[in-house]
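One example copied in:
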Amino acid sequence: MSAEQHARASGNARITQIAGDQITYAPGAGPAPRAGLGLPEAPAVLVGRDGPAEELLGLLADGGPTVTVVSGLAGVGKSALAVATAHRAAELGWFGDRVFFLRMRGYAPGGGVAGPDAVREMLRQLGFRDADVQGSPDTWVALYRARLAEYARVGQRVLIVADDAGEVAQVRDLVPAGSVHRLLITSRHRLVAPGFTARQVVLDELAAGPAALLLSAALPGDPRPSREPEALAAVAEQCGRLPLALTVAGALLAGDPGLPVTELAAQLADARTRLAKLDSELDDGVRAAFDLSYGRLPEDQARVFRLLTVNPGPDCSTPYAALLTGEGPAGLRPKLAALVRASLLAEEPVGSGRWRMHDLVRLYARERGEERAAEDGREAAADKLLGCLILQAEVAQHVLGVDAWREDGPGLPSVGNVLQWLGAERAMLVAAVGFAVESGRPEAAVELGTRLMSYLQHYRYRQDALTVARLLLAATEGRGSAEEVGGRLYDLGLAWLGTDRPEEAAGPLTRALGVFRENSLRMGEGKALNMLGSLYAVQNRWAEAEQVLGEALAVFRELRITHAEGTVLAGLAQIYEHTDRLDEAVTALRQSISLMRDLNDRHREASSWNSLAEVLWSAGQREEAVAARERALATHREFGNRKQALRTLTALAGWLIELERDEEAGARYEEALGIVTEEGEPYEQGEVLGNLGLLHRRAGRLDQAREMLERACALVAETGDRRAEAAFTKALALTLYDLDRHAEAADAFERAAALRAGLGDAEQEAVARAAAAELRGRAARPRWWRARQPPPQDASPPQR
């Protein structure tokens, strides 16, 4: 506002003229004295928000944007963050006592504070009396900006906190001119509009640790958090780590001092009643907060919001969202984007076309969806989704060839495309089997689950395979035929065999065998015998394993099922190897490979090549063993079976080191490192890095060796594998010695000694302590003496 003048009238009255409008204040009727800092009290606890608080404080500093919007889901802690940061800015003296707070009530059922009323309220806080605020709302805006301009001229900065705004219209006229002052807005929406420029700070739910800490903060002096930390963490997760929900859960615990945290966790475990529990006896609970956001949605957006929850996975891709809603992707994306702006949905990562709801929002949307199920066509949408997934899973099954034969050709996706789809949607596919069971669609559950099982087994998603197998049995028992029930019991036994509790397979496999025999189902009988033989082999019960596998082989040869015959031969070869009948093992595996090749079962052929490699290595045929491993590896690469490729690569690299082919071994470990970095467990990554470090040290690449060994030590330490950590720590100590970093080497030897002591390995502990003492003793001697000394004791690379 450029045309702004001030003057004194008679009697010391003050005149302010703004763009032609003249406002005169009589003596004694001028701006009222204003109270000090206009903020609510700072929150007593602000947990887990150090990063956002630091970012927000930086935005309020000189050089920051004029307007900042803190947005996020209802109850995520936007107001607490804004108020705490405003208090901090005031403490730093950035705004003096010129900090103002407006409650915009943007989501109140009766409507929020209108833009002109917000300006009028600011004028009151700036010291104007109601009688002095005359004219139109445009005049009020001009007067407001004139007062801010006065402050700016004398170098006094102003901060306005507009809390809980629902739309840009509420706050547009509050935007200060220039770059001196700051307007800090909180909203459930990411406020965007033409001509309204603001920095967006999106606040997410808390991390796991801070969420549990916030819950504990509601219980000062209460022994339950320290007594039941695991239950406390479970409650925090069930609250979706949302501060409002955590506060409600804390109030429930505080209101019942005798309630164990484990009991509250059990009550919240049922997703169907969780929101009701988090609203218990509270007017401002979680559901009530979500009601206000949902109530503002236009009906077309609300319908999309409800139907997205038909997808049972953790997120939903745009094509599946289009399938559920019946809308084209082009028309659907603006609605999805609007839900993102309303903080009811998130696109993660941005631009990916994958949409995720907060866990509690998802429960809320499902409740609303079930209320409007008939109107939305919810059941039909579920049927469409399951039908689509069954068809896609069947295509994937054939393209990958995980069920004995493989198909390719025009109209079929590539292996890479299928693996990309399975990787993106695996969690949703597994959840969809459960959804089909729970929603009374057992046939769909079986059709989808059986098409997934072989993929999950071959690609080593063992926990998912176990989950699906249990669901398939639940969908079949009590309604399926004897053959179907036996088949599902077999699937469950097979899934247990792939876990770290293979003994659990005995029950379902024995039951399956009984069902098949009682009903003269010979093929099923052979399959159950085959898996029981595999179980006995895992348990080193070689004689029993050979007996039942022999029975299985007889069944399959009688029925002329050559594919199953090949799997039994591979199992028998394992027994022959462990009972020192290597020639028989080689013969059986070559027969298995031949049968699988004829049937184009590339996955089981690769498995038999790997088994043959082990036998050949044991027989001293080293080069042939390496060649067999390479054959298996080529197939794993072709079909993108990264977990199987990882196992083959690390085994192959170990053999190549023994053959003194270090360069080839390094290449295999580098390839393995690429796999474990993307999707491996910390232990696997640590082991690969450690072995690469040993290779670099052998080749004299000491800096690379040190870096990899340090990373390896940190990773295996996380897993608790003290033996691996001790080996890699000693290797690191020797590497540091070779780099003339003797003090660090001595420290590493001490760590290795402590680890060996914990393992009860007194001999290696003594060796490491002696090496550390020797190095520390050298450090006290003259440099010319130290330069002549040999390496410390046991300078050879550690053997693992």
